[in-house]
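Bug #77: duplicate submission created two jobs. Keeping one. Sequence:
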Amino acid sequence: MSNQQSVFHSNIAFDLGGRYTGVFLINHAGGETPTADKTLAATIVMPQDGEHFSYSTKARTAVRHRVRAGKRYKLVRRLVDQVVHYLEKQKGCTVAEEERRRRAQALSSLLRRRGYSRLEGETDVDLSPLERIDASVFAEHPDLGEFFEASRTIAEQWDEISQKPAVVRKLLNALPTVKEIADYIKSDFKELADQKKDYQDAVKVLTEDAKSIDLQINLGHKHRSEYFKAIQKDMQRDVRLRPLFDLFGSQERLWHFICNVSNLQLRALRWYFNERNP
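Kept job's structure:
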């Protein structure tokens, strides 16, 4: 009598979403080719947003960034303080407590201004629709052709455009409405008429993300390099920092130090201070 056991395959796949999660199952005996009657597809629908629950990550992301920025600022101040004390010890300098306090205030004000190294919209925008469309549709559009080319994905091109505030603002004024892009596809790309919703979604995404980026610029957000230029000018005027020019060798060396420290990410600062003898 054979003790051979039969094999049964049961596979499951998930398409995870916020409120909607897709599920696809296949169950069949080993050696059999799966058929439609052996499959099951379903969508798990979560409840609507409520007072104590939200699918959007915007608020949580903002809180996380604020907490991380606070921790980074504290560690940066601590690092600068260590370097200054080390140089004072090396050169045998003695500093009065009141002068030390005033100098710490001046340095803290410089370290608070960091700016962005990469400009991103602050809204919770899903950019995946930009990957699903044919770039030639935008490249041949009478208004969008100035911004996009057919040889690369719209997602890749938007990643570059979004870092140029002036171009973002110009594109924002050129973007068609969802109805206009649908009419354009119907007339110029009839073979894509059944996919017009994908292009409408792409226009919505570009419009929302571009508005968010433009708003940041209007509110005074600046690139980190612009803040560094402002820091250099402020250092020249702040008499509290002048003793540090001699300590570091020159005003320019102090400026370079402040800029380099401002570029340090939180994880790099943690690596340093987690050592036994930082």
